[in-house]
Fold this protein.
Amino acid sequence: MSETPGTRGDLLKAIHASRGMEHINRSHQRTFTLNIFRMNAQELIEITRRVNDPDEGLRLMAVANREAGSQTHREVTRRVHNFVAGALTLVEHTRKFMRKNYSTTPMLDRYQAKIDADFKDKPLVGFVQGLRNYILHNGLPNSEMYLHFQSNPDRVEGGTLETGIHIRTLPLLEWREWSAPARTFIESCGEVVDIRTFAESYTHSISSFHDWLQSELDQFHSADLEELDRLQESLSRLEAAAKPGPAAPVGAKVSSGEGADESEQEFSFARSRAAALDAAVNALLHKVRKIELEPARDDGFPSERPIAVTLTDDEIISVPLVWVTDTGGRRALVIIHKDGAHFGLDEETFAEMQALTESVVKTDWAHRMLSRGFVEKTTIKWLQDNFQAENTKSLAETIAKDGRDAVRPLELWAPIANLEVQNSFTVGPAEVATITKAMIERLESQALSFAPQQRDSIVGLFNKLRESVQGLAAVVFRMRAEAGRIEEEGGVVAKTIVAFLRFFSPAALNFPAISANALLGSEFVPSSNLLILGDGSFSYKEAILAPNMPGWRISEGALKGMRPGLDAVGGLVRPEGLSAFALAIRSSLLLFSTGTTFANPIERLSYSLSSLEALLLRHSAEPADFNVAERMGLLLTQDRAEREAIARNVREAYRLRGRQDISPLLPREMGSVATFVRCAHNVIGTALWNVDRFGTVSDFVNSVERLRSQSPSTSNRNQ
């Protein structure tokens, strides 16, 4: 082994010139031809599966859909052409690749031995290769779509309906150029060659071979790949050593942005940052201008809405901030009322103030403890206090001082609508606990001791709290911060945790039940409110439209069953530091959970399908319905018939999602949605239990697709 280069430039050159990198680049180039075959195969199999689905096949062959059926037939023929053409292209390119790069190595002998064992004189292989020549020299094969109904002699009604597409064998056999293995295959099929069957069987064989070939090539180049790994590790160590030194001692925080070379204690800005803040806010101060208000416009009719509250000037304890339109048609924020005039900031100047706010919250201590709202209000208050003043104060010192006064240990309790828990439990960085009667009484006693003169108002407030939140579960989040910051951070955490909880709720598995669990006030309960008037009579009706929506109560026993799942989702509450696969699972959980809140089955389907696509598609270029159906089946069962049933269910889910009419779903369709939702839940759960095993969605999907070769019931027909 040669000596490892010492400089970064030398290492990069060595990496790009290494045998390991050459092998990786060659393998990448080989994937282009392999992708042509695989995508052609996928397209052909996908359309034949649609035709084989009785619901879809019957629709395509209906008189009313004649054009759609004819185009589908044409599409099948086009894809057969592309399939066999891509198959032969792959054969020739692979043969050329091996002879060019491995002609003097034992690898070529292993390759040829594998080819002879798996493909030489095999009837199916001969047929696919021969079909390419048949189409090229003789024309398109004589295919036909069919529908076959077989009655059940044991029942008065009912039977089996089959649809599909196949090629008649008699016209094929009239061509004299078939090889002996190809003719054997055609004769073994009887009257027809089923397109889907031969496409799936051939694709499975070719995919297995190329998986084997790549594995063998990687093993052949194992020493080269190890050398490449060593070079890349050396580069990583070199780059890590070139980075700035270790973090500052505990208690001293290093800020980002301006002043990043100076340490910053809590509630203190580095001199350079403080100077930059003060310069920026003084520039803003000079842009505060007088606002000439646009005259109020009369829209021409009085409102019938009752007036709820009227405020007087004496009751306003701070300057109201109001967005207005000035006489020039520009939007402006009024922040100062002085001598009967209005002063404020244009939209552009307000955007500059928001940029100043962002620069403050990028500071480590401010980011942890101050909200954007707090910094923004402090800045506006500074502008108000220093407007037309001879000497201005330091905004940096003002934010630091006001922040120190506002920051303290706080608890955020976010009540969850329609949820009760027997015992408290943790989910990631927060806890789920009950808002108890004793807790409300304790808070009421504290409030009365502080302001006994307002007893009636306080008692009224807490009576309202008893009615609305007592007994409900709440997400409890604790941090040292000012009130706005815990509301900001805790609100996001609470919303995420409630969404994760819904994944474990009864509604998640039991469509058409929906979940009304959400942060209190944001729950969605569809209802009807109708006023019916008659001759001398009227009636008013209120009704809940969503079926099966009781409150959810988590007992101690139920919690034990949920505990492993809660531990798994707890690590996904905050997205920072998660792997790409963990982020995909997090997104999938949130999407599926959102779907449980909708009564409309099409909306439920849309969110459920999106949640699966986040986990089962490597990228957006992959055909969604085919791959979701294929990979769901592989994950959920090893039985071929059951996989086909799952695939049919997924195809129907995509069809229902795309339907254009708004008529209610039929009972059979509602049952199909319920089956799909349960399968989707199981797939997401499987991914969740494996969150630590994979780094990316591609790693997960590759593992799923390897299950195909492990299936004991893969069809061997026509091979």
About this structure: The chain is about 55% helix and 15% strand. Residues 245-261, 313-317, 713-719 have pLDDT under 50 and may be disordered. The longest strand covers residues 159-168.
